[in-house]
Amino acid sequence: MAEIKYDIRETFGVLSESSKGWRKEVRSISWNDREPKFDIREWAPNDEKMGKGITLSKEEIRNLRDILNRMDL
Hints:
The protein is α+β, with helices and mostly antiparallel strands.
């Protein structure tokens, strides 16, 4: 299996943290030397491991923002 390269460009915030220290974070990440995208996923302490997540383009993150703004939370 090919190794996945990633470069964390910016961390925007933490959505939650588990009792074991895993944090669900919103970040900007460059995957395999490509243009950075927005990313929401869980990270182990010290970023040593990552869980499943979702990667969004700028257009997708704007659409998500608009959807969340329309919701009655």
